[in-house]
Every structure is written in structure tokens, then in C-alpha cells.
Amino acid sequence: MSDAAVDRRSFLGSLGAGSLGAAMAGHLAGQALSAGPKPARKWEPVSDRKIRFGIVGFGHCQFGAAFSFQNHPNVEVVAVSDLIPERCKGLMQACRCSKSYPSLEELIKDPKIEAVFVATDAPSHARHCMEVLKSGQHVMTAVPAAFGSIEDAEQLLEVVKKTGLKYQMAETSCFRPDNYAMRTLYRAGAFGTLVYSEGEYYHYHTTPIPSYKGWRVGLPPLWYPTHSTAYYVGVTGKRFTSVSCRGFKGAFDAFKPGANRYNNSFADEIALFATSEGGASRMLVSWTVFNRIEETGRVFGSKGSMDATMKYRGGGHNLPDVSLPPLPPGVNPGGHGGSHGQLCHEFVSAILENRQPLVNVYEALAMTVPGIVAHQSALKDGETLKVPQYDPPT
Ligand SMILES: NC(=O)c1ccc[n+]([C@@H]2O[C@H](COP(=O)([O-])OP(=O)(O)OC[C@H]3O[C@@H](n4cnc5c(N)ncnc54)[C@H](O)[C@@H]3O)[C@@H](O)[C@H]2O)c1
């Protein structure tokens, strides 16, 4: 693959197409499987209510329009926004929406809007989500929940708790077919306790990927941890408790002294976490492993194991159906292994059913904050550091 191939397509299309194909074929095979997965269920509406949405952000990845909110039968897109007028127009067009505001800050004043999808630059997510929640609207955000700041993460948690509104982080790995199957089997006890797990996000790029005000230039890899950490937290709902992390110094210009705002020289970071189950988990984020662009993971438990091939190796019997939930007509599964439509539908369903979404604020912080601590560990030459815990009330 040439460097030129490391572009917007890599965000939207190329990641995970293989594993989606496997799931569509209902491919789950293994020695202990007595019956194949049942055929996908049919979508049944739970309500004919339309939730009135605002959508913000149509940047390099054009994420605002990528999750099919505009096609969901329980959504009306009331208004959209991007600070850059041409992008704002593009988002209006993509969402078939006739109303726009010049900024998120203006959009949230619209009393019609009940929920907002925040697809802005990563450094703004926590602040933008808090603004949305404080103005009385539910919020779904692109990853990560917070950007390099544990204080921001903790403030966000307080605002979610105080407002009682729905919050979801759109971690795409959580609805990749392999991750979904792992979670379903884990919940059914088919893996037992996880002894070990691995999560990997490789995104090779020799020059920085475009981003609003250059936030991707020299980005500390594990400040963007959630595609990897979803392969433990998103599977088990359990937590990382401590970490030791190694950083690899990147040779590319963006990682040279003074070349980035983060004073960061690491282009790849590999973290070893202790888990609340008493096991270990290796999570990596990599910008410089040659030509590799992939989001993947593996789980190894006391009763079984699984990798991206979705082959269950274990002693479990009567295994549950692992096919993804059916989507309403018109909602496209979309990119990142067919996860976009699922994340939109999960958030909309959580609002309609008045329940917590899958990647609620506690899960979002459990996937995000450990990466921030891991980067601190890498800066201290791998010193073992404790990971703060944010557990939901029991
Ligand atoms: N697999 C994944 O989950 C995945 C993949 C790609 C991108 N992302 C995330 O999606 C988000 C968007 O990515 P991108 O590459 O398009 O980002 P980007 O930096 O290119 O664009 C961000 C956009 O937000 C707009 N914006 C910022 N502040 C605003 C405000 N106050 N009001 C209105 N608009 C505002 C900017 O004008 C810009 O167009 C990022 O946070 C990224 O981390 C996630």
C-alpha cells in the first residue's frame, strides 16, 4: 500500500471489511459449537416517536453524516453545524437538512433539539459534550471521551451524573462483529475469566492526517486508545487497574523535538495493563508500523478464546446467537466494520427505552482514561501507575 492510500478511505472504508463479511455470513465455527448462529432477527419498532437531533462536525472524516442519523425512522435532524461554512453546507446536504447554525454553541440554544451528535475535533469532545448536557440535551460523541486530560474526564462524568441525560461514546470497535461476538460469548460465560487480552490500533501515516487546528500532529498514540481498549473493556465490562507502558520514538518529522504541541516523541505506544479480573491485557496504538492499518483484538479465557477470525476455541456449549442486532430499514451499517449504524441505533434506542446505552459514560471513561495514564507511564520509562476507577453505582 502506498502512503497515498493512507487517507480518508482508511477511516471510512478499509478498516475491518473482512470481519464484517465473516459476520454477515454467520461464520462462527469451533470445536465446541453444537449449532450455528440463528439467522438475524427482524427489526421491530419500539415507538413511532421521532427524536429531534442536532448534528455537529463535518471535518476530514465527514463523521457527522456517517452514522445514518438522517436515515433512522425515529430521528428528525432539525439542524446541523460546522464552524467552516463549506463544511456546514456539505453536512446540510448529506443530512438532507435545511437548517444550520454557525457553531455548536449556537445550535444547542435551539429549543426543538433534544439530542446532539458531536463529531468535532477530539480535543473539544469533553467540553462540547458538557455544553450540550448542560443545555439539557442528550449527547453522543465521537471518540475519545476526553483528550489527554483526566480532569476533563472527571468533570464530564460529574455533568452526566448531575443532568441524568443519556451519554454515549461512539466507539466503533464495540460493534465490530468480532467484538460483538466476544461480548455476547463472554456474557454467556463461554470464555470464563479472561487471563489475557490484546487490542491493537495501527494507523500508519508518514505525514499527519489532516485535522482541525492540527490536533493530529504528533498525537500521543495512547491518548487515542479506545479502538484498542474496547477489546477488553468493551468485551467484559471489567476494568484496567494499573499500567506499565513503553513508547517507541517516531522517526517522522511530526515527532521531532519542538514539532508538536504535545512535546511528544512517541509514535507508537504499547501498554501492559493489570485487569480487575486478575489478568493482563496488552493494548497498543501505532502510527509507524509499516503500512499497517487495522483495528483488532483477541481474548484468552479460562474456558475459551477467540480472535478476529471469530472462531471460538473452547469448552462452552449451547452458545448464543452472535449476529448483530437488526437495523431499521434505511440505516446503513456504514464504516469501521459496519459499526456506525449500530452505534446510532443503540443511542436512539437507549433514549426511546430510557435505559443506559452500551458505551455509557462509565464504559467510555474506562476505555479512555487508562490510555492517558499509559502515556504518563511511557514518559516515566514504563513506571507502573495506578488507573483511576469510575464504576457505575450498584
Ligand atoms: N473509528 C472512529 O471512531 C473514528 C474515526 C475517525 C474519526 N473519529 C473521530 O471523529 C471526530 C471527527 O474527525 P475528523 O477527522 O472529521 O475531525 P477534524 O478535526 O477534521 O474536523 C473537526 C470538525 O469539527 C468542527 N468544529 C470544531 N468545533 C466546532 C464548533 N464549536 N461548532 C461547530 N463545528 C465545530 C471543525 O470546523 C471541523 O470541521 C474526531 O474526534 C475523531 O477522533 C473517530
Low-pLDDT runs of 5+ residues are 1-29, 31-37
**How many β-strands, per DSSP?**
14
The radius of gyration computed from the alpha-carbon positions, rounded to a whole number of angstroms, is 20 Å
Q: What general outline do the C-alpha atoms trace?
A: globular
- Write down the overall mean pLDDT: 91
Which hetero ligands occur in this complex? Answer: nicotinamide-adenine-dinucleotide
Sheet with most strands: strand arrangement: 13-12-11-7-10-9-8-14
**Name of the CATH first level of the domain at 3-30 and 173-316 and 362-386:** Alpha Beta
Reported CATH architecture of the domain at 3-30 and 173-316 and 362-386: 2-Layer Sandwich
CATH superfamily of the domain at 3-30 and 173-316 and 362-386: Dihydrodipicolinate Reductase, domain 2
Span of the ends, CA to CA: 49 Å
Strand content: 15-25%
State the helicity in percent bands: 25-40%
CATH topology of the domain at 3-30 and 173-316 and 362-386: Dihydrodipicolinate Reductase, domain 2
Give the helix/strand class: alpha/beta
Return the string of H and E elements: HHEEHEHEHEHEHEHHEEEEEEHHHE
Number of helices: 12
Oligomer: single chain
What is the topological layout?
Layout: H1 8-12, H2 17-24, E1 51-56, E2 75-81, H3 85-95, E3 100-101, H4 104-107, E4 115-118, H5 125-134, E5 138-141, H6 150-163, E6 167-169, H7 177-187, E7 194-203, H8 226-229, H9 233-236, E8 240-249, E9 266-275, E10 280-286, E11 293-301, E12 304-306, E13 313-314, H10 335-338, H11 340-352, H12 361-379, E14 385-386
Parallel strand pairs: 1-2, 1-4, 2-3, 4-5, 5-6, 7-10
Antiparallel strand pairs: 7-11, 8-9, 8-14, 9-10, 11-12, 12-13
Helix pairs in contact: 5-6, 6-12
The structure holds nicotinamide-adenine-dinucleotide (NAD).
